[in-house]
Amino acid sequence: MESISDIREQFEFTDEDQKNLNELGKILLPYADQLADEFYEYLSQHTKTAAYFQSDKAIARRKETFISWFNDLFTSKFDNRYLLRLQKIGKVHVKIGLDSYYVNASMSFVREQCRILVAAQIKDGVCKEDLPISLNKALDINLSIITSSYQDEKLKKVFVYHKAEESLVNLSKRLLHGMNLFLTVGLLVLGLGVVGLLGQDIYKAITGDLEYGVIRALGTLLLLWMMIELLEAEIQHLKGGKFHVRIFVELALVAFIRKIFVASFESKEITGFILLLGGLLVLGIIYFLVAKVEKQKTY
Question: Which end of the chain has less neighbouring CB within 10 Å, N or C?
């Protein structure tokens, strides 16, 4: 919220206007009780505002509030203290859930009643013609400060929602980064496992069936190569790069190829071998489609 000096400057409210308000007070303050009655009679005609005056005590209290504000309008100096009082009024309106357009309509009603009273005095030559101008400035300043509380409340809610959303996003990013780190560690462990498997295959090739051992070692070597590719892709992803789903499909393809290599020696059942070939074909089609989509996204 701007300072009262900035507000006065924006509305071109001068010391002369302040003097005019004091003079207007001599004309309008004697009608304060009458205006309070007319004001709350006006409010009681509307369902939303009438709900706040369901007892005589409530009506009397609200009339006292109106008279106090009306008196301050003409007798108070438009300084920071006056600004704080108006802000407090606005916060009360926000707290009770009174929509801002009711405040605007109410101020319009007060403005019109004051205009009628002042106009009658001008016709009789009692007051200067620039008094209504000062009155309008004062009422506009009051309306601006009071309704600014509604905007402050909206901004506060937006800030709270934005802060909560930002915190949630940051938490999600940290969790995601943590899971990616965990995935990287898992890939390292699996990579070491594949290295161990490769060593075992080489050992079997040397100590047992050379042809069978070489085929198994070749399949495991392909699997190790894919693990390295997958680990490298994950590291690039941690650095902010894009992760490619295609690599997972490649890994599955290599695993099937290794299985087919081994099955060509271990299994004599033709049905199982055909199923492996069919699975390899399906994975090949999936790899082709995924690679095609990722290639289109790069352009």
Answer: C
Whether the per-residue pLDDT at 159 is higher than 60: the answer is no
pLDDT tens column, 79-120: 888 888 888 888 877 777 777 777 888 888 889 989 888 888
Instruction: Give the residue among 104, 26, 133 at the shortest CA–CA distance from 71.
Output: 26
For 52, 69, 79, 132, 219, the CA distances from 107, given in Å and listed in that order, are 17, 12, 21, 15, 85
Judge if 41 and 143 occupy the same domain.
yes
What is the spatial distance between Cα 9 and Cα 225, in angstroms, rounded to a whole number?
A: 74
Residues 67 and 157 in one domain: yes
Tokens (6 digits) for 59: 């009506």
Inter-residue contact 31 to 117 (CB < 8 Å)? yes
- Statement to judge: residues 76 and 214 lie in one domain: no
Sign of CA pseudo-dihedral 218, 222, 225, 230? negative
Secondary structure letter of residue 208 according to DSSP: S
3-state secondary structure (DSSP) of residue 55: coil
Domain that holds residue 245: 165-297
User: How far is residue 69's CA from residue 64's CA, in Å, rounded to a whole number?
Assistant: 9
- Cα–Cα distance between 35 and 31 in angstroms, integer? 6
Maximum Cα–Cα distance across the chain = 125
Our measurement of the distance from residue 11's CA atom to the centroid of its chain's CA atoms, rounded to an integer in Å, reads 34
Looking at 124-245, list the stretches that DSSP marks H as alpha helix, in order from N- to C-terminal side: 131-207, 210-238
CB 93 within 8 A of CB 149: yes
Which of 161, 181, 200 is the endpoint of a domain? 161
**At 292, which amino acid appears?**
K
